[in-house]
From TrEMBL, chains A, B, C, D:
UniProt similarity note: Belongs to the acyl-CoA dehydrogenase family.
Cofactors demanded by this protein: FAD
UniProt key word Oxidoreductase: yes
Acyl-CoA dehydrogenase/oxidase C-terminal domain location: 246-394
Signal peptide limits: none
Domain Acyl-CoA dehydrogenase/oxidase N-terminal residues, every copy: 9-128
Subunit: Homodimer.
Name by which UniProt lists this protein: Acyl-CoA dehydrogenase family protein
Organism of origin: Streptomyces macrosporus
Keywords for this protein: FAD, Flavoprotein, Oxidoreductase
KW Disulfide bond (keyword) present: no
Residue ranges constituting the Acyl-CoA oxidase/dehydrogenase middle domain according to the UniProt record: 133-234
Amino acid sequence: MDFAHSPRAQEYIERVAAFVDTEVLPREREYLDALRGQADRWAVPPLMEELKAKARERGLWNLFLPDERYGAGLGVAEYAPLAELMGRSLIAPEVFNCNAPDTGNAEVLLHHGSAEQRERWLEPLLEGRVRSAFCMTEPDVASSDATNMAATAVLDGEEVVLNGRKWWSTGIGHPNCRFVIFMGLTDPDADRLRRHSMVLVPVDTPGVRIERMLPVLGYHDEPYGHGEVSFTDVRLPRDAIIAGPGRGFEIAQGRLGPGRIHHCMRLIGMAERALELACRRATERTAFGKPLANLGGNRERIARARIAIDQARLHVLHTAWLLDTAGALGAVGALSQVKAAVPAMVQEVVDMAVQMHGGAGLSDDTPLAGFLSTARALRLADGPDEVHLGVVAKLELAAYRERA
Amino acid sequence: MDFAHSPRAQEYIERVAAFVDTEVLPREREYLDALRGQADRWAVPPLMEELKAKARERGLWNLFLPDERYGAGLGVAEYAPLAELMGRSLIAPEVFNCNAPDTGNAEVLLHHGSAEQRERWLEPLLEGRVRSAFCMTEPDVASSDATNMAATAVLDGEEVVLNGRKWWSTGIGHPNCRFVIFMGLTDPDADRLRRHSMVLVPVDTPGVRIERMLPVLGYHDEPYGHGEVSFTDVRLPRDAIIAGPGRGFEIAQGRLGPGRIHHCMRLIGMAERALELACRRATERTAFGKPLANLGGNRERIARARIAIDQARLHVLHTAWLLDTAGALGAVGALSQVKAAVPAMVQEVVDMAVQMHGGAGLSDDTPLAGFLSTARALRLADGPDEVHLGVVAKLELAAYRERA
Amino acid sequence: MDFAHSPRAQEYIERVAAFVDTEVLPREREYLDALRGQADRWAVPPLMEELKAKARERGLWNLFLPDERYGAGLGVAEYAPLAELMGRSLIAPEVFNCNAPDTGNAEVLLHHGSAEQRERWLEPLLEGRVRSAFCMTEPDVASSDATNMAATAVLDGEEVVLNGRKWWSTGIGHPNCRFVIFMGLTDPDADRLRRHSMVLVPVDTPGVRIERMLPVLGYHDEPYGHGEVSFTDVRLPRDAIIAGPGRGFEIAQGRLGPGRIHHCMRLIGMAERALELACRRATERTAFGKPLANLGGNRERIARARIAIDQARLHVLHTAWLLDTAGALGAVGALSQVKAAVPAMVQEVVDMAVQMHGGAGLSDDTPLAGFLSTARALRLADGPDEVHLGVVAKLELAAYRERA
Amino acid sequence: MDFAHSPRAQEYIERVAAFVDTEVLPREREYLDALRGQADRWAVPPLMEELKAKARERGLWNLFLPDERYGAGLGVAEYAPLAELMGRSLIAPEVFNCNAPDTGNAEVLLHHGSAEQRERWLEPLLEGRVRSAFCMTEPDVASSDATNMAATAVLDGEEVVLNGRKWWSTGIGHPNCRFVIFMGLTDPDADRLRRHSMVLVPVDTPGVRIERMLPVLGYHDEPYGHGEVSFTDVRLPRDAIIAGPGRGFEIAQGRLGPGRIHHCMRLIGMAERALELACRRATERTAFGKPLANLGGNRERIARARIAIDQARLHVLHTAWLLDTAGALGAVGALSQVKAAVPAMVQEVVDMAVQMHGGAGLSDDTPLAGFLSTARALRLADGPDEVHLGVVAKLELAAYRERA
């Protein structure tokens, strides 16, 4: 049992930490002011490309990819502290080309894409030249139960025809978004987990239409955004189906595991930053003649946040280690555990930090309100807390005689 | 001990309920679409004036005012269930001319204003022709400790001169906002509670400047909004000081008590509506072959919400009854109790309802996201939870020997 | 809406409060020392009979009984504040002859007993000369679902024959316990709610055997106690069946409603006493140079306890008022609400008071450890929290379309 | 980063697990029946000596001691999973000679005792022939602030004279208890952390008197027990002072760190056992036609317990690793974190398991009620939660500018 990071991970930690501290955090305000000051909120402020170029130049690029040809070749547990550092700022993941959903889409193409798909779509994605979206969740069915999915991807000779309506397609609003990965029902008579296909769809394919952009607790998360997208008789050549028809669930399972833990890692960083801001406020602001830290239960709140964050980080690291050593199947319970526990914990820590800031915490004068929106959304995205708790309970009870 | 409402209150309950159900709720979506579809989000959609006219015509107008000359002459406990009904929709309070901060400002002018102030400002306010704001909180000091207040209202001969910066001036963005009530330091050498004055300031007075509008967790709450407002050498005749110099805290105390309980009443209605939406969703939406109501802990969450709301309502009603029978002084502890407890409870209930709705709960497709923003803000507005808990503890411990 | 107690209730409140303060609390320690110092812990210390005589003499006797012939003729809402006062000491309810399960048994006999049963058993019970037990819960089936009940009360000519095993028969250990009310299955083919009978069983009937006394979190609650009792071919004349065969559930429903609310009322008093002790400790004990009240989150804990108690009291009073005005049926949801909420709240408040006392709170130097055991047990007795939450949810959802 | 146990630890884990499963758990009931069936509850049932002999024979003895001469030579992180396994039964720690407070006293004597003290007291202690107690906490001062300590250990020529009153002296009731370690004030004028001494006191020294045994939430924890002990002019030779006068705090700090983490390790095992019992009950018991696991929020409660336990275990292991690699000083924050978090978590998990068991959970038919008492007590023993939260907050805030 050794809780020390590997020397390679340690070295990356220092470099990413330094980059976040010196390049990203000091310019976060500038970026947001630029974004909000633009006539078009759905354009990318030039500062982002500047930061991306700098990160790439320093070799801090695509760190999420365990594949050494395309990425840094880091294990999940090695990437975890780096993703945590990126999570400290809502703008940092893109700077390092490590933002969802592009990371998950890259993994899908890397593992399941054809050579042509990798060349045409994966490479520009990993270069940060294009962005992408993932179209899975649907407005009319409970997405917590993915077998409900109603959109279709039907074979018609050498073509596949897509129909249906998706929402919460994150990233679809980005001006560089060039393709989406769409999931739909191909063969309703196949085995429950072999019915669906994933299809790579260029966004300019006829029949693809962004119906509207959805706010998350008041935020549109520009320039990424979350879209409701309709697919009407969208026709693509059959080889747009990633890995072939009926492999949708198999690919999704492989995609969602890392996706979920990446979210949790970043959330830890978000909570750390929130706690830092809370501590700074608690020591700098006075009321009733004392710093806030010395009023009421504030110290206990800070201590409880520290404990909750440290426990959650260990939990995420342990899950990452399981992914590295036992694979996605060996980590399935741990993944559901962290996905059920971490966003809810971070929501609470951020909420505490908001409270410590008074009105400033509600506004956009700190990153806290954005963090609250993000943490809250992640209690639903990639499976609501309750579904993950159900998985954990099912695994726990499996060892006992169960009558139902 | 009799928990039944008076016949008069009961009759108003039925009328307000019917109005909300038949006039307001069915047109809430239309109002919001109009608001968001306008080129200028800070304009009032005509539907609002239509609804106001209808409510006024039916005698459902200014119900908050206990004064029979200007309002309905209802006691606080009689008004409570009406305010609850209005709280079911974020747009309803204005429809009945019962929205903050105009209600509080009306009470200030009614009780403390000169005849001229009442005629010039109170009457159009009560007719719903003009709107107003309240400028108390400041960005640079902890507003939880009001004695920190740094803005000044200095006498200069027959004039009073205002300087300082306020924020969270709710309502300042409304196109009909004509005046603000400003609070500032007049005499630093007076007794701690006699130092400040309240001044009635027409918004077009030279030196008054809206610096920016502040979002609350992503929402700007148009067309009301929350402003940061600077006052630079704003000169007004001395009789703009309400009730004379040094009476600011006295007036504020009288204003804040009813203001706080009105917020709590409306919050109860918000929680009821959230619970209704959650129950509807829990019975209509299915996953894993069952309605959500029959999955995981959802029924327990619904039951706990019901219990929490019922307890909170009784708490608010009891506090209202204390205000009616024992006055603001006799209700000071109860007021802090409900202010500390109700917004936090409602935040939890709404958060549960959001979760039950999945992604739809995060978006603006239901009123829940707006409710979450509002409930969260009310854990800070009019005193953060922690300050009210401090008041409750102080009163509780007063009977015991305390060394500190 | 009027939260004031009736003059009659107010007068009783003052008298009971004075009696508890001057007669009971000052002698609580003496009673407990006597009880624990006895060779036989299952004997009644003489002090109890002395206090009972005094209470009876002052007319503070059987206050729980709404029937004017036998009791004080108080409504449920009038009795509530009196039961709360009695709840301040674990020994007080018996002093006023208002302790469970004798109160519930008295109501059963009053409403459903024959003239002979009333004379022979009810009168000595109401005089405090005998005690009784209630034998409903069984060890081998989930008592949360009463239709599981396996014990039998089978008719055999002019006799009824009882067989089965009961546990948590509270009061069975008392030296004066003379009879139990037993519930068993009579006709398995009858309608689900008409299958069971209640039978009055003298404890010395052959075949009745106390197998053992059960501790509750380490406490045996002497001299009352909680027994596991076997019934083996216990034969009684048929008229021992209260109100006739098959009426068991009907009687139980009438018995359990008041029983549950009486528990909740007393729990409020227990929480008040715990909070008093916590406040006293918080002001008298110092650490790190300050009274505990000024350390960490202690003030917030005190404030939250005050709020929770006040909300719960109002909730209980409202439920009592519903019982008075709408009857048991009209109060069924409210009863489940308070039963699900109040014991859990009191457990938390007492736990907080224990923590404030350090080691002393764990020991029997304060009444807190006993309170903790009692409050914890009441989250299970008379229906576990979860069953009551289920009732509340079912009622809440009934208005909506439900598919399951 | 490697979460795998060392091969040596893994081998011990398997052996201890097998011993607990095959020797201890199957005989737990037999032990408790023997203990409670004895005329004298303060005698050791012979089964205990039988189990101790077996454990010692198998080399599963004194595993807590990192010192290879006396113990197994395991690091703290290696011992952690073993202590967890022992924590599954309240009787197991003694079986392995790894029970508090003997473990802590052994460490004190090993590190600070004279050769003579080690020979005369440490060796029989490590052989399990004698037991001991630790006399630190006092009834009249807040023990959370150890500098309050009022008992004295005054030098008088070649003797040291002890006076004062201690309580919560765990183990003092054991028939084999031969000595206590007493802490008292020696030099009030010395530096705050150099004023106190620790003295080894044979229990038969004149002037030592057990005043009474204290219950913990109704449990006396026989045959160990918790005593209130008076010391009246207890005279001992000066060399009874461990490590010499004034070293009390230094020794205490070294003693308490491992003591606290051992408690936390065992608590994790207690929680695991409680969760197992809850799962077994949830699958075997039915109500309303379903296993409890499928009712209400029970699955979510099980899932949350699993998550809480796994997070806490990782937290404890990380703290153990810090103790091994960074020493007591490097682990001070982590130690306070786990001590503040783990007992409270375990109290909740056990409380959930009690609830799942209904009345059986309250009684002694399962180990749960005893677990609840133990977990609750450990929120106070070795420093109340609040003091540890204060330490965590202080360390957290140290990096920020603090005005108070």
